[in-house]
Amino acid sequence: MNAVTTHPLTLHKPAPRALPSGPWTRQAVLALMAQPFMQLVQQAHAVHRAQFPQGDIELASLLSVKTGGCPEDCSYCPQSVHYDTGVDASKLMAPDAVLAAARAAQAAGATRFCMGAAWRSPTDRDIAKVAELVAGVRALGLQTCATLGMLAPAQARTLAEAGLDYYNHNLDSAPDFYPQIVGTRVYDERLATLQNVRDAGVKVCCGGIIGMGETREQRAGLIAELASLQPAPESVPVNNLVRVPGTPLADSPPVDPFEMVRMVAVARITMPRARVRLSAGRRELGDGIQALCFMSGANSIFYGDKLLVTGNPDVDADRALLQRLDLPVTGAST
Ligand code: SAM
Ligand code: DTB
Ligand code: SF4
After folding, report:
1. Concatenated DSSP letters for 231-264?
2. Looking at the annotation, which residues are catalytic?
3. pTM flag (> 0.90)
C-alpha cells in the first residue's frame, strides 16, 4: 500500500464549531498555538463564523484624556515618568474638548469610545471628573470605555453608575514574565482591579502585548490567564509592541508577524464570544497580516489617527482596507 503523507493544509476532520471558555491551561493553549499555521487559522475561523455570523468589525476610538507623567515603570510605555520619551505630562482634559473628540469619532463611524489616563490609581476626585466625562460620552449614544489604572471597589461603582460600559485593564503578559516588564506593581494587583470592575457590573476589556521579548509559551500563558477569568473578558485587545525610543523596550527585536495571527486565533478559540481587538502596532503589520487576523477572529480595531500618544493607520486607509476585504462595520446603516 502506498504511504499517504498528510499535508497540514489537508484537513480530514471538520474544525470544531466552538469551544467552551476557560479554565484553560498554558499547555493546552500552547498546543493550540503550535498547530500548523493554516490549521490554526481554519479552526479559529470556524469558531468565529459560528459565534459572529455577520462578521462585523467594531470601530473603537481612543483618546488620551490625561497624558504622561505616570509614576509606573511599565517598560513598554512612552507615558512613564521613568523614561525620556519626549512625552510631556498634562492635566485631565476639559469635558468640552473630550466631548468634541467623541462627537468627531462618532461622525467618523466609531461605536465605542475609550478614554485613557496615565495614572497608577486615580484619586476619588479624578474619578468624579471622569464619571462626568463618561456620562457625557454615553449621552451621545456611544459605548463607553475607560482605562485609568488600578481601581478601588467604590471607584468602579461610581464609574458604573455614570454609565461606563467597559473598563480596560490589561494583564499584558504571562505572570512569570510580568516582573521583567513592570517593577512598580504586581500581577495580583491587576487581577484585583479586574475583580472590582466585574463586581461593579462593568464589562471587562483585558488583553496584552506581544513582542516584549517573551517566549511563545509565555504568550500562551497570557491567553490561559485571560481565558480562565470567570467570566472571560468581553473584549480582548491584542497589542503589537510599539517600540518607542527612550523606553527600555525600544530596541526589542520585532516579533514574527505570524505570531500576531496565532495570538488572535487562540484568543478567538479560547474566548469565543469576545470582541478580539487588533490594537497597537497595526501600522507595522501591514494589510496582509491584518487580513489574516480578521480571518482568525479579530473583530475590532482601534480606529483614529492616534492611539494614546503614538500613531495609528489613518481612518481613510482603514475604511479602504475593510471595504477591500468586504468586511462590514458594526452599527453601520449600509
Ligand atoms: N495607565 C493605565 C494602565 O496601565 O492600565 C491605562 C493606560 S495604558 C497606556 C493601557 C495599555 O496600553 C497598557 O496596559 C498596555 O497594554 C498598552 N500599551 C502601552 N504602551 C504600549 C506600547 N508601546 N505598545 C503596545 N501597547 C502599549
Ligand atoms: C490597549 O490595549 N491598547 C491601547 C488601549 N488599550 C488603551 C493603548 C495602546 C497604547 C500604544 C502606545 C501609545 O500610544 O501610548
Ligand atoms: Fe502608566 Fe499605564 Fe503607561 Fe504603565 S502603561 S506607565 S500604568 S500609563
Report:
1. SPPSEEEEEEP---TTSTTTTPPPPPHHHHHHHH
2. 70, 74, 77, 114, 145, 205, 277
3. yes
